[in-house]
Amino acid sequence: MSGRLYIVATPIGNLEDITARALRILGACPRIAAEDTRRTRALLTHFGIAPRSLESLHAHSNDREIARLVDALTAGEDVAFVTDAGTPLISDPGDALVRAATFAGITVIPVPGPSAVLAALMASGLVGGAFRFLGFLPRDGSARREALAKVCDTPETVVLFEAPNRTAVTLRELADATPDRAACIARELTKLHEEMVRGTLRELASLEREWMGEVVLVLGPHEVAARAESIDDAAIDERIDVALAQGEHSRAIAERLAAWSGRPKREMYGRVIARKQKLES
Fold this sequence. Notes:
- By secondary structure, this protein is of the alpha/beta class.
- It has 12 helices and 10 strands.
- The radius of gyration is 23 Å and the shape is elongated.
- It is an enzyme of class 2 (transferase).
């Protein structure tokens, strides 16, 4: 019989959050694959677990390293996979291993536990039913503008991860599009300096402070149609003129305007081109 692949959630901060089942699996599996072996070894040592085999498997691991683990599973060995913290595969590596294991007919077993996404939602007061998790936003370029537009076009609650040094910029960009949307910044969840900061995106973006530690941003549900109805053509044209004066590209302006106004990107692009031609004539 082949072995089983266990996907094991570990604490995101407070070590007391580890489950009894996770400890049992980690202690019993002959192989543990970890995103960061040093961090995982420290966790295992804290709980008195001496792994028989602890090996690295991270986002940049090659096919040969994944195949080695699948071979071990096929030969009958159980394997536990953990990431740095929290639930694997949620903006963390592990997907390639799971896909390879399922393709080989290996049983994959989730061992649920701590999750920064769910912890932030629990305390935000902004769940409102369905929610959408988008992970980390792209850092720049059209990919970032499109991702921001997707956030603004989502009426359900949205959960984002963000690096502390980019949190202020992201808040300003989101506030530019949907200033009155309710939001919560969940920082350093389950850790000593855990903090929940709530307000509208406009209020959060105006805070003059440094964001430190692990950051999860929860945006409350909002009415996309109501936002589109509240913005008239004059306000759109004013923004277009300012952006053109600053030398921005037409497509970039249109993407940002679509996110802000709730109107179709094609309509905004046509309006930008028309304004550009009028200003140049």
